[in-house]
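thread: overnight batch results

M.L. [08:02]
morning all. the overnight job finished for the chain we discussed friday. pasting input first so we're all looking at the same thing
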Amino acid sequence: MRTLRTRLVLSLLATGFVLLLAPLVGGADNKADDKPGDDAKPAADAKRAADAKPLKEEGFIGQWLVIGPIKLAEESANHEEQTQKPMLDKEYFKGQKNATPKAGDKASVDGADMEWKAAETDGPNADLEKFANDAGKDPLHALFMGTAYIVAAKEMPDVKLSIGSDDSSVWWVNGKEVIRVYSGRPLENDQDKSEPITLKQGPNVIKFAVINGEGPVGVSAHFMDKDDKPITDGLKVTLMPPAKGSKAPPGEAVPAKATEEKAKEEKAPKAKED
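M.L. [08:03]
and the structure it wrote out:
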């Protein structure tokens, strides 16, 4: 009788112990399930690296995500700053300033959905007139926006963005405006250059907005070194936006001068404490 009673007590104790452990084990599993992004980020980074393509000849960007044409008033054919500045500075859709789109993303513009579409160039120039015509839309008196993600193998100080645009345009690198031009002109390469900036290691976000008054419309862009020679090595382009927590997420472009000053400070010998 004593042996049977002892076994019963031990069995009850074991059952209670298992019940006490169950919430702890389950809680650990649930906590892991709460963070799907931990596994998703490396997968997204790997996919982006595989998706990245070489630049065109002389380092021109040959892939863009484009949204447009966004219809403007006929006054857009007047390329003076006082007329076109409000058009280039306007927020046409929510989150426009910090948008990092991918192909197929939609934005509501004047109550209508517009889609970001991939556009690949045959040469250095992105023909936005053809882009609009292929979509059955009028490219005249309109604004186009474009985004590309340039992946740098290492940090690159003292580089310049060099662009051409037909017509007026604004350009941003990692959220910082680097070029703005008001001009009714045909597209030629290297019409305008930015001040020296630093590209971060990893993805860098390049954006443009271009106005077309009348006639053709298009853009071209590539990066040049401090000697104004096209950068053809160490850069690739992808249309996949940076993942959260990427090594070089979108942020403000770092002026080359600031990078040099920081490097000098790090190399300078520190004063010994008394």
